[in-house]
Amino acid sequence: xxxxxxxxxxxxxxxxxxxxxxxxxxxxxxxxxxxxxxxxxxxxxxxxxxxxxxxxxxxxxxxxxxxxxxxxxxxxxxxxxxxxxxxxxxxxxxxxxxxxxxxxxxxxxxxxxxxxxxxxxxxxxxxxxxxxxxxxxxxxxxxxxxxxxxxxxxxxxxxxxxxxxxxxxxxxxxxxxxxxxxxxxxxxxxxxxxxxxxxxxxxxxxxxxxxxxxxxxxxxx
Length: 221
Prior knowledge:
The chain has helices at about 1-15, 20-25, 30-45, 50-70, 205-220, and strands at about 70-75, 80, 85, 90-95, 100, 105, 110, 115-120, 125, 130, 135, 140, 150. By secondary structure, it is of the alpha/beta class. The protein has a domain at about 1-150: UDP N-Acetylglucosamine Acyltransferase, domain 1 (3 Solenoid). The chain has a five-stranded parallel sheet with strand order 2-5-8-11-13, with no helix packed on it. The protein has a four-stranded parallel sheet with strand order 1-4-7-10. It has a four-stranded parallel sheet with strand order 3-6-9-12. The longest helix is centred in the first third of the chain and has 22 residues, at about 50-70.
């Protein structure tokens, strides 16, 4: 039940509005339905046989219903920590041998293979497949296919994509406007000073000869 409370608390964090509205939206989300069915199946596994058997039948029916309606397959044999959040539905498949840590998020079109460990705080999204025997580190963001036997770690660095700043310079009216973002290639930057061409110009003269001729003509004038 503690895991279920953590799951619901995580779902409420993503909703806006008053308390009643947030609960209504969270409980009506397909991802919450899948998590509830999964938690029910896990809880039923630990019950005595007189309780486990009828609950197992109910679980199988609900599991099939979630699979058909929402396209989410999370078998109860998978080991998933508290705080599981599924923001989107459709094409989500988790292996029965997968292990997922605390406060993880899954998105649509994700397939998780066998013997996969997803550490706490990881985000897995996109039309991707996580191969077999894969380990994903804490807080990692995975948006592409991961091959078998891979270990994925969070890259702590950062990348500068532009030097154009966050806003334009002050205009005549003393106001500023947001600037469009321009993604640039992060190749090694060159010196910002202007580059003077020293090759031949259109008249066949070199760059230095052209500058000398220009200075001579300005002196004569």
